[in-house]
Amino acid sequence: MRMYLAGETPMSKDEGWSRDVEGWQVGALSTVIKRRLYSYYYHGYSIGNRLSKEVELAFDCNMELFLDSGAFSAFTQNETIDIKRYADFIHQHGDIFSAIASLDDIGSTGAQSWDNLKELERLGCGVFPTFHQDDEIQYLTKMLDEGYPLIALGGLVGTGSSSKTLGEWLDHVWSKYLIHPDGTARLRVHGFGMTNFELMMRYPWASIDSSSWAQAGIFGGCVFYENKKLYKVTFSNESPEQRNFEGWHFNRLTEQQRATVDKWLVKHGVTAQQCAQHYSFRHLVNAATYQELETIGTN
């Protein structure tokens, strides 16, 4: 399973995505991250259909890049991405991306997303389709009948669905349409915004993306994988978790627990004090943790 790190984070190749942070390992983060997912809406459409400097830097750092259309982001801003502009961007810059998503339509039953897929193909763009939780099942069967080697499942976050409801939907889609009788995948399947750890591990995803690594760092925490579980420890004293006495804040851990966390941090070359001071150190830990999840996936 390939893990693409999503989310908007500032990037500097020479400073490891941080600025003027005492003790920071120069360029450390750019060497940890192997794969990044970028939104066309933020890194093309909204800046005059040019390629953003961050994407250029990520490419220079030999990261594998995945392009999402950003249709959901545009939807939340009451904007609509022009399909011809997207096609022009793909023709100009598509060769640096290993996979490019079609322009999906948010809130429909799948018909407009299918029409957009066919229009992009007519315009000469090599894109893959996305099937959403609210789409009619006929569009998934069309994708399978036409032999697309890669499809994505979308609508996995921000829909209001509980983990139980989402799991039931994924169980149905995977078992009936996406796996062979022996449990292997019929084709490559990508999970957009797959942040639930249990669901990450339950199915034979070819790839997923998640912004949880960045969100955890921004809100003061680091994520660690140990004993087949993900643990989140908050370090920042400015985080709301400092006031949440049910949460794992480093300052409230026992001496033995702190020693365990310090042991987890050592391999990343950072300290608890540094993680409390600046999100860049937390991003380094979280990026490494999420990239390491590739090795424990079902593929």
What's the β-strand tally?
A: 10
Mean pLDDT: 88
Order of helices and strands: EHEHHEHHEHEHEHEHEHEEHHH
Q: In percent, how helical is the residue content?
A: 25-40%
CATH topology name of the largest domain, in short, is TIM Barrel
The strand order across the widest sheet is 1-8-7-6-5
Task: Count up the domains.
Answer: 2
Under CATH at level 1, the class of the largest domain stands as Alpha Beta
**CA gyration radius, whole angstroms:** 20 Å
Structural class: alpha/beta
- The gross shape turns out to be globular
Strand content: 15-25%
Largest sheet: 5 strands, parallel
Give the terminus-to-terminus CA distance: 5 Å
Second rung of CATH, namely the architecture of the largest domain = Alpha-Beta Barrel
What is the H level of CATH, i.e. the homologous superfamily of the largest domain?
Queuine tRNA-ribosyltransferase-like
Flag low-confidence runs. Answer: 12-26
Task: Please report the number of helical segments.
Answer: 13
